[in-house]
Amino acid sequence: MRFAGVRLVATLVALVGSVNLLTSVRPHARLAGLAAPMDGGVPGRAQAFVVGVLLIVIARGLIARRYAAWVTGVAALAVAALAAIPHRPFAVALAGASLVALVTLRHDFPARPDPARLRLSGQIGSVAIGSAVVGGGWDLVVNRHDPAGVGNAVVGYLSTDAPTGWRAWLVTFVIAGSVVLAVVVAFLPARPPRPGSSLDRADVTELAARGNADSLAPFATRADKAYVFSPDRRAAVGYRVLFGTALVGGDPVGSIDSAGAAIKAYIDLCTRHGWRPA
């Protein structure tokens, strides 16, 4: 029942994102009004495209129960609610209700971000910031009498209807691509773990050699397997992560009485790391 609330909020976020994408392809005053409740105006095509893609990525992250998507979604809805206050009471109510729902469901997002993914995401995001600063500096050099200087140029790249000149197009493309890619990377599941240690593999080999082991038990001792044990270490699950899916070959090895606890430990591990169990 609680996950139905997550799906509802994610669907709403994806719907607003889709409207933004439509606005970026075919601007229309009424459609643009729905797409940009944040500023009360008509968004530029570049802005609408980036916001649309980001919202759809956030919605997908919410469905996957990623904590990073929850944080990003809460921030986006809070900004949307505050910025819509002077212009659209309905947008304030909708964003506010979604924000309250997300905060209430905060414990339903157990998949924690991978530190390595977050570092890479930050590095990609720095490319967007650097590109904006360099582009703004170039505009300041070209337009020496522009008192707004770099600040106006940086803000203006994604807020205009269409960039003018190949440099503006290039900077806008780099900024937009870097922002979207940084968010996508932050929402990725954790990297595959290293294969199990020699000590773990020796324990699994002993468990797989017991008389109640099935015919697939020896495959758990493969050198490419990682392991998760039951709390009493009397049963273990061997798995390998491929493209975000943790693949298990065969039943848990070891004691039948501890097999359920080993499976639960494996499921909990997949949940924390954002892997699909299979």
Characterize this entry briefly.
The chain has 278 residues and is of the alpha+beta class. The protein is built from 10 helices and 5 strands, in the order αααααααααββββαβ. Strands 1, 2, 3, 4 and 5 form a 5-stranded mixed sheet that branches.
Report on this model:
The chain is of the alpha+beta class and 278 residues long. The protein has ten helices and five strands, in the order αααααααααββββαβ. The chain has helices at residues 2-25, 29-35, 45-63, 67-83, 89-104, 115-142, 149-156, 166-186, 198-208, 259-273, and strands at residues 226-229, 235-242, 245-248, 253-254, 276-277. Strands 1, 2, 3, 4 and 5 form a five-stranded mixed β-sheet that branches. Helix 1 (2-25) runs antiparallel to helix 2 (29-35) and helix 6 packs antiparallel against helix 8 (166-186).
Order of helices and strands: HHHHHHHHHEEEEHE
Overall form: elongated
* Biggest beta-sheet profile: 5 strands, mixed
Query: Between the first and last Cα atoms, what is the distance in angstroms?
Result: 24 Å
> What's the overall average pLDDT, rounded?
77
Protein topology:
Elements: H1 2-25, H2 29-35, H3 45-63, H4 67-83, H5 89-104, H6 115-142, H7 149-156, H8 166-186, H9 198-208, E1 226-229, E2 235-242, E3 245-248, E4 253-254, H10 259-273, E5 276-277
Parallel strand pairs: 3-5
Antiparallel strand pairs: 1-2, 2-3, 2-4
Helix pairs in contact: 1-2, 1-3, 3-4, 3-8, 4-5, 6-7, 6-8
